[in-house]
Amino acid sequence: MRYLMTTKASDTAPDENLYVEMARFVEELTAAGVLLATGGLEAGGVRMTSSGDTITVTDGPFAEAKEAVAGFALIEVRSKEEAIELARRFRRIVGDGESVIQQVFGP
């Protein structure tokens, strides 16, 4: 099962220890074959909406900075519970904040 884990931006500035712990965590998940992709996301982005034949393109940002998704990890695990446990470990490393886990369907 694949899951997309996203995290919202934080008011807390990262310190050197966070980078070290996160690198260790990413290295572990990569070696285990669990981590498929990870990355940070730009704050703005582009929103596209369609209505009939009309497609509207709008430059961001769209939400308050604290509501914007700041990063993601795509993982492949055996169960939802395993995805939740990995997200718990992530939250313990980065501290206070919010993450969302969603199952990814399809090939």
TrEMBL record:
<dbReference type="Pfam" id="PF03795">
    <property type="entry name" value="YCII"/>
</dbReference>
<feature type="domain" description="YCII-related">
    <location>
        <begin position="1"/>
        <end position="90"/>
    </location>
</feature>
<dbReference type="InterPro" id="IPR011008">
    <property type="entry name" value="Dimeric_a/b-barrel"/>
</dbReference>
<dbReference type="InterPro" id="IPR005545">
    <property type="entry name" value="YCII"/>
</dbReference>
<comment type="similarity">
    <text>Belongs to the YciI family.</text>
</comment>
<protein>
    <recommendedName>
        <fullName>YCII-related domain-containing protein</fullName>
    </recommendedName>
</protein>
